[in-house]
Specification:
Shape: globular
Number of helices: 6
Distance between the termini: 10 Å
Strand order of the largest sheet: 1-5-8-9
Helix content: 25-40%
Radius of gyration: 17 Å
């Protein structure tokens, strides 16, 4: 239901607002222990200098030349969900490039047309993302790849194919089942339209029990 969804876009998707809504302002207060929480992020991805070893999500007010103070570290994001969202079932979907980087010398640089990134430099590996208990992480591309916007429709290939894959087997489609279709379809379309490889990655190492089902109607909806 609409009151179970919090949508942050454009100017509302600032670093501080994202942090607040994930915590005590909204999700941290309303998600109960047995709920399934889905956090979906579509933005630019970036890494800072190699010696720091942290990958950043770019918010609306992030300064590419001051990522440490204005970006959202991926590892921190997972931890804040773990600490402030008091449920055991979290699915994190990240539609960003995992190989982006912004450096002081890149001011004014832009991504090639269609790429969801800043500047590709230092790779971010999904295996290094710290997962909380009961978290599944679905990412749009491998650590050395960019994530592409579609040439045929609005927004990203990954998100469109994810929606289609979740609908394919009705409201009992598991995340793993959807991922099998998603990976094949994304690789096929991006290779055909861009001549590049983009391979979505699903990390279920921290997930115990049956696969999550994102398309099912809530069993016990509440105010």
């Amino acid at each position: 239901k609409p009151d179970h969804v919090k949508l942050l876009t454009d100017g509302n998707a600032t670093r501080d607002n994202i942090v607040a809504e994930l915590g005590g302002k909204w999700l941290g207060r309303l998600a109960n222990k047995d709920d399934l929480v889905v956090v979906y992020l579509s933005s630019h991805g970036s890494t800072t200098k190699a010696q720091v070893g942290v990958n950043f999500l770019v918010a609306a007010d992030t300064n590419p030349n001051a990522l440490l103070g204005t970006g959202i570290p991926m590892q921190w994001l997972s931890e804040i969900i773990k600490e402030q969202v008091h449920c055991d079932r979290v699915v994190l979907v990240i539609d960003v490039c995992h190989s982006g980087a912004a450096t002081a010398g890149a001011a004014g640089a832009t991504a090639s047309s269609g790429e969801k990134r800043l500047i590709r430099q230092n790779n971010f590996d999904i295996e290094n993302l710290k997962l909380g208990s009961g978290q599944a992480v679905l990412c749009s591309s491998l650590s050395d790849q960019v994530s592409w916007e579609s040439k045929q429709y609005e927004n990203s290939v990954f998100t469109r194919k994810l929606i289609e894959a979740l609908k394919k087997r009705g409201d009992q489609t598991s995340l793993t089942e959807a991922y099998q279709d998603l990976r094949r379809e994304v690789e096929s379309e991006v290779l055909r339209d861009r001549g590049e490889l983009q391979t979505p990655v699903l990390n279920m190492k921290s997930w115990a029990g049956p696969d999550p089902v994102l398309s099912a109607t809530p069993a016990s909806p509440r105010p």
